[in-house]
Amino acid sequence: MFAIPLGPEGAELRPLETWHAAEFLAHVERGRDFIGTYIGFVDAVVSEDTARDLLHRYATKRAADEGYLYGIWTGCERPGGGTLVGGVLFRVFDAATGVCEIGCWLEPAGTGRGLVTRACRVLADWAFHERGMHRVEWWAAAGNTASTAVARRLGMTREAVLRESNPRGGVRHDMEGWAVLAHEWDAPKDGAPRA
């Protein structure tokens, strides 16, 4: 398969496949409390079988061109090596309407390095330039400041706040909706070329 470098520290973006179930489960176990603060799939991933089930659902979505799932690995000195520390996905991909939604998660060992921002740029570039999508969306709990900061770094505009719409961990979270349009994605920011 492919591996896209995500920076000088040996991080890579790769497809997250059903055969990664054991590695995916180990990753979820390392970051369960941290990831689970805002991300619900960790509740369902409790065994290698349930990890495989989630990965299989995304393989089915990919086959239908309705969603895609990628892992972020660090320490990739050899092909296929490294440690899975998070991921990005097209949670929704609707080629007919030209609208998709990107999402992300990381365990603590993957934070603070810009990995998600770089990985999401890869996904948005592909969506706009290869697939001709018109709109890329991003939904995040308002309290998830790391996630909303990624949306800002991607040049997205906050368009909506759905008050107390997402119950998670006994708390009802406001959800912020962010988006960037194809013509905005390639536009220079503040007179400088987009990095």
What does this 3D model show about the protein?
With 195 residues, the protein is of the alpha+beta class. The protein has one domain: 3-Layer(aba) Sandwich (Aminopeptidase), CATH 3.40.630.30. The chain contains 6 helices and 8 strands; from the N terminus they run E-E-H-H-H-E-E-E-H-E-H-E-E-H. It has an 8-stranded mixed β-sheet with strand order 1-2-3-4-5-6-8-7, with helices on both faces. Strand 7 (157-168) and strand 8 (171-181) form a beta hairpin. The chain is globular and about 40 Å long. The two termini are 26 Å apart. The model is unreliable at 191-195 (pLDDT under 50).
Strand order of the largest sheet: 1-2-3-4-5-6-8-7
Number of helices: 6
Helix content: 25-40%
Estimate nothing, just give the exact number of structural domains. Answer: 1
Protein name: GNAT family protein
EC number: 2.-.-.-
Domain N-acetyltransferase: 11-178
Keywords: Transferase
Protein topology:
Elements: E1 4-5, E2 12-15, H1 21-36, H2 41-44, H3 48-63, E3 68-74, E4 83-94, E5 99-106, H4 115-130, E6 135-141, H5 145-153, E7 157-168, E8 171-181, H6 182-185
Parallel strand pairs: 5-6
Antiparallel strand pairs: 1-2, 2-3, 3-4, 4-5, 6-8, 7-8
Helix pairs in contact: 1-3
Task: Please name the defining characteristics of this protein.
195 residues; alpha+beta; Aminopeptidase; eight-stranded mixed beta sheet; 8 strands; disordered C terminus
In brief, what are we looking at here?
Helix content is 33%, strand content 32%. By secondary structure, the protein is an alpha+beta fold. It has a single domain (4-185), classed as 3-Layer(aba) Sandwich (Aminopeptidase).
